[in-house]
Amino acid sequence: MIEFGVSLPTIGMDDPSAVRLVAEQAEASGLDSVWAADHIVLPTSHTSTYPYSADGEFLIAPGLPFLDQFTTLAWVAGFTSRVKLGTAVTLLPLRHPLAAAKTTATLDVLSGGRSILGVAAGWLREEFEALGLDFDQRGAALDESLRLVLAAWTEQEVRFEGRFFNVQGVESYPHPAQAPHPPIWVGGHTKPVMRRAALYGDAWFPPLFATTPQALAEAHRSMNEEAAAHGRGDGAVSLSLRVLVDLRDEPDIAGAEKRGALTGEPQRITATLAEYAEAGVSHFVFLPQARSLADVQRTIDLLSTRVVPELRS
Predict the structure, then answer these.
(1) In percent, how much of the chain has pLDDT > 90?
(2) pLDDT digits 0-9 by tens, 202-212
(3) CA neighbor of 282 nearest in space, from 5, 58, 95, 60
(4) Which of 228, 69, 195 is nearest to 121 (CA)?
(5) Is residue 50 left, alpha or beta, with left meaning phi > 0 and alpha meaning psi from -120 to 50?
(6) Is the pLDDT of residue 231 over 90?
(7) Please, which pLDDT band fits residue 131 given cuts at 50, 70 and 90?
(8) Backbone torsions φ then ψ of 312, nearest 5 degrees
């Protein structure tokens, strides 16, 4: 069964009622998950190139509110009962892995086992510099962080010695409600990301950007071959897809082309996503392109009534 999720309006809106309305609408509409994005700080100017836009332009204008993802998801957990609660994605090298493990485990316990930890290395050098962290070591730090997170979630006594972290004789409770632990989704599309997903991921979580169903299927197949070679079993890593959609009355066509967002009639979007479902995608996460709460709600309504049923059938 294919699953579907939607991003919460945590960027550009700081109205708690907007987040609540979207989360409740997602659950009532039969969607399977809600998601929150992550940045700790954003520079007022930067030279870093955003990897998911044809011209490298970042999608978020300066001065917009950006809610903390874990706080938001914990709040949403209190008034929902079914939807999974995912981070899309946590920039794990910006945090100590034991702190991230504790927060995710707490969310999992309090939500009754509904958390998903999406992770990525990050792309914004200036954010790392503001936090006093080495941008060039972020990939290696993420790999080590994932090993330490898994140890904190599953071991009675955590002992870990690596390049970045040295932990001896501590415990991290509560362990998550989900056994053996919450799913780890590895975001991104590069070869290091694919290797990371093969080693540690329960799902690979690339964006629908500069790819095709065939290319995605081949990369996913190779990833699971590598996972099996490391003793993780056949089909250890599922495939999820982050999909920007612009279903506004007046969509930004030029912006959609730059960012790989889907536009047009719901039937057209359904046909496109059906090809990715055939390629092995088992969970689509929609990011509504929106100027207002009404845009987000309209998008969820169209997706849940005219796209999701067709793909599920």
Answers:
(1) 97
(2) 999 999 999 99
(3) 5
(4) 195
(5) beta
(6) yes
(7) very high
(8) -70, -25
Which residues partner with 119 through β-bridges?
90, 186
- H or E, element range at 62: none
Report DSSP state, residue 171: -
Give me the helices (H) in the chain, please. Answer: 16-28, 69-79, 97-110, 125-130, 138-154, 191-200, 213-229, 253-259, 266-278, 293-302, 308-312
Write the pLDDT tens digit of every residue in 48-91.
999 999 999 998 888 999 999 999 999 999 999 999 999 999 99
Model pTM score: 0.97
Say if residues 10 and 37 touch (Cβ distance below 8 Å). yes
DSSP string, 178-206: SSS---EEEE--SHHHHHHHHHH-SEEE-
Residues forming beta bridges with residue 15, ordered by sequence position = none
The CA distances from residue 124 to 67, 138, 140, 144, 243, in Å, are 18, 11, 16, 20, 21
- The DSSP 8-state label assigned to residue 136 in this structure reads G
Beta-bridge partner residues of 281: 239
Separation between Cα atoms, residue 27 and residue 34, nearest integer Å: 9
